[in-house]
Amino acid sequence: MSAWFNQHLTALRDALRRLTATPLNSTLSLFVIGIALTLPAAGWQLIDNVQRAASSASGVQQISLFMALNAERKDIAEIESRLKLAVAGRWRFISREEALKRLQGTAGMADLISSLPKNPLPDAFVIDPVDTSPEAMAQMAKTMGAWPKVAHVQLDAAWVKRFDALLRIARLAVSLLAAVFAAALVVVTFNTIRLQILAHAAEIEVARLIGATDAWIRRPFAYFGAIQGLLGGVLAILLVVIGSRLLTSPVAELAELYGASFTLEGPSVSLAAALLAAGASLGWLGALLSVNLSLKHPD
Amino acid sequence: MIVCSNVGKRYPGGLTALENVSCEIGAGELVFVTGHSGAGKSTLARLIAAIERPTSGSIVVNGQNLAALRGSALPYLRRNFGLVFQDQKLLFDRNALENVLLPLAIIGTPIGEATRRAQAALDKVGLLDRAKANPIALSGGEQQRLAIARAVANRPAILLADEPTANLDTNSAAGILDIFHAFHQVGVTVIIATHDPQWSGLQNARELRLAHGTLAS
C-alpha cells in the first residue's frame, strides 16, 4: 500500500514537473481545452437563464387557478390545503381586491375600472409547478379544474409545448456541441501526450529495462492529462463567470424596459463541478489512449 | 542461481547469436563472459536479464523459468538485476542523484529513504560529491560509475554488466573492476560481459568464454 502510494506520489510529481517544464506549450494547450469546455458550458448557462427568464416574465410554466366569484374564505382554505397535499410546487394567492388594485395601476384602465358597479375579478392562485413538462402540467391543470369552487384553470398548453420543444432542441444542440468539443479535448490531450512520450523516450526505455511496469510508465502521463484537463475546467469556469458578470447589467436593463426584474445567474456549483470532472476525466482518457497506443507501437 | 540449458538465439534474418549454450552461475559468484566481438556475450547477458527471449533452450533464474514467465511478470523479475549497459543509458535531463533515484522510484521507495539509498550508492562508487552534476558533465569513467550506482541502488541480488570497461582507459577500467569486485565480496552475484580477457584473471573469478555463439570453455 505504501509502495503504491509512493509510486502515485512520484507520478504526480513527475506530471507537475513535465507540465511546468514547457510553460508556453502547457499554457497554449490549457487555453485550447479551456475554450473547448467554455462553449458548451456557456450554452448550458444560457439555456438555464432563458428558462428562468421566460417562466418569470411571461407566465410560461405557470398555472393560474381562478376561483368562482361566490367562493368564500373556507373555499380558499380548502384549495390551499389541496395544493399543499398535491406538493405542486410554489404558489401564491392573489385576492380579488389585490387583482383589482393591480389592474387599476395599469395605464388606461383606471377610468374603466372605476366605472364598474362592482369588482368583476375572482380570487386566484398562481402556481409554479416543480414538474414543468407539458404532460405533467396538463394533468395538474385537469386535476385542479375538478376541485370545488374552481371556476377556471388557465394553462397556455400550446405555449408550454412550444417552449419545451425549443428548450429540448437547444439542449440537444448544446449536447452535440459538448460531444464535439469533448472529442476535440481528447484529441488535443492525445497529441500533447504523444509529444511528451517522444520527449521522454529515453526515460521510458531505461525504466522498462530496470523493472518498470507499463502501469508505472503510464501513470505520470495519465496524471498530466488529468491535471491539464482540470486546469482547463478551471479556466472554463472563470470565462463563464466573467461572461456572466459582463452581461448581468445590460440584461437587467433590458428586463427593466419590459417591466420585469431579472438577474443573470453565473454557473451553479453543479455546473462548475461538472466542468472540472469533465475536464479531468477527458484529459485522463486522452492521455491513456495516447500512452497505451505508444506502448503498443513505440514507433 | 542461474541455469542456462541448451540456450540458442536466432534473430529474424537468420543470424544465429547463440547455439546450445549451457552453464550454471551460482549465487555470489563473480563470472566474466568473454569472447571476441560478435561472440554472443551481450546476447547472453540480455537473455539472462529477460530483455530478450531465447529461441531454444531454457534459462532459469532463482528457480523461475524465464520462458514460462508472462510478459507482465518480467518487470518484477528484472528488479532482481542491477543492469549496467555498455552505453550506460543515463538520463541527461536529470542530475546524477536523480538518475540513481529512478529504480527506487519504480519500486515505490519513499522519497526520504530513496534519497538516502541513492546517496549511499553514489558514495560507494565515489560520486557523492557529484550528486548534483548532470551526467553530461561527467567523464566516461564517472558516467560508468554512475551507471553502476543506479544498478546497485535497489540492492539487487545479481549485478549484470555488458562491456562496462569499453571505451575507458586502463586506470578507469581498473577502478570500475574494483567496484564490481567490492560488490562481489559482499555476496552479490556479478556477471560481466567483456571482450577484454585480462580481467577474468581476477581472484575468485570464473570465465565463460564464448566463440561464434557457442561456449568454448
Automatic annotation (TrEMBL), chain A:
<feature type="domain" description="ABC3 transporter permease C-terminal">
    <location>
        <begin position="176"/>
        <end position="296"/>
    </location>
</feature>
<protein>
    <recommendedName>
        <fullName>Cell division protein FtsX</fullName>
    </recommendedName>
</protein>
<feature type="domain" description="FtsX extracellular">
    <location>
        <begin position="62"/>
        <end position="153"/>
    </location>
</feature>
<dbReference type="GO" id="GO:0051301">
    <property type="term" value="P:cell division"/>
</dbReference>
<comment type="function">
    <text>Part of the ABC transporter FtsEX involved in cellular division.</text>
</comment>
<dbReference type="InterPro" id="IPR003838">
    <property type="entry name" value="ABC3_permease_C"/>
</dbReference>
<dbReference type="Pfam" id="PF02687">
    <property type="entry name" value="FtsX"/>
</dbReference>
<keyword id="KW-1133">Transmembrane helix</keyword>
<dbReference type="InterPro" id="IPR004513">
    <property type="entry name" value="FtsX"/>
</dbReference>
<keyword id="KW-0472">Membrane</keyword>
<feature type="transmembrane region" description="Helical">
    <location>
        <begin position="169"/>
        <end position="191"/>
    </location>
</feature>
<keyword id="KW-0812">Transmembrane</keyword>
<comment type="similarity">
    <text>Belongs to the ABC-4 integral membrane protein family. FtsX subfamily.</text>
</comment>
<dbReference type="GO" id="GO:0005886">
    <property type="term" value="C:plasma membrane"/>
</dbReference>
<keyword id="KW-1003">Cell membrane</keyword>
<keyword id="KW-0132">Cell division</keyword>
<dbReference type="InterPro" id="IPR040690">
    <property type="entry name" value="FtsX_ECD"/>
</dbReference>
<feature type="transmembrane region" description="Helical">
    <location>
        <begin position="229"/>
        <end position="248"/>
    </location>
</feature>
<dbReference type="GO" id="GO:0032153">
    <property type="term" value="C:cell division site"/>
</dbReference>
<feature type="transmembrane region" description="Helical">
    <location>
        <begin position="28"/>
        <end position="47"/>
    </location>
</feature>
<keyword id="KW-0131">Cell cycle</keyword>
<dbReference type="InterPro" id="IPR047590">
    <property type="entry name" value="FtsX_proteobact-type"/>
</dbReference>
Automatic annotation (TrEMBL), chain B:
<keyword id="KW-0813">Transport</keyword>
<comment type="similarity">
    <text>Belongs to the ABC transporter superfamily.</text>
</comment>
<dbReference type="GO" id="GO:0016887">
    <property type="term" value="F:ATP hydrolysis activity"/>
</dbReference>
<dbReference type="GO" id="GO:0006865">
    <property type="term" value="P:amino acid transport"/>
</dbReference>
<dbReference type="InterPro" id="IPR003593">
    <property type="entry name" value="AAA+_ATPase"/>
</dbReference>
<dbReference type="InterPro" id="IPR015854">
    <property type="entry name" value="ABC_transpr_LolD-like"/>
</dbReference>
<keyword id="KW-1003">Cell membrane</keyword>
<comment type="function">
    <text>Part of the ABC transporter FtsEX involved in cellular division. Important for assembly or stability of the septal ring.</text>
</comment>
<keyword id="KW-0067">ATP-binding</keyword>
<keyword id="KW-1278">Translocase</keyword>
<dbReference type="InterPro" id="IPR003439">
    <property type="entry name" value="ABC_transporter-like_ATP-bd"/>
</dbReference>
<protein>
    <recommendedName>
        <fullName>Cell division ATP-binding protein FtsE</fullName>
    </recommendedName>
</protein>
<keyword id="KW-0547">Nucleotide-binding</keyword>
<keyword id="KW-0029">Amino-acid transport</keyword>
<dbReference type="InterPro" id="IPR027417">
    <property type="entry name" value="P-loop_NTPase"/>
</dbReference>
<feature type="domain" description="ABC transporter">
    <location>
        <begin position="2"/>
        <end position="216"/>
    </location>
</feature>
<dbReference type="GO" id="GO:0005524">
    <property type="term" value="F:ATP binding"/>
</dbReference>
<keyword id="KW-0472">Membrane</keyword>
<dbReference type="GO" id="GO:0005886">
    <property type="term" value="C:plasma membrane"/>
</dbReference>
<dbReference type="Pfam" id="PF00005">
    <property type="entry name" value="ABC_tran"/>
</dbReference>
<dbReference type="InterPro" id="IPR017871">
    <property type="entry name" value="ABC_transporter-like_CS"/>
</dbReference>
<dbReference type="GO" id="GO:0022857">
    <property type="term" value="F:transmembrane transporter activity"/>
</dbReference>
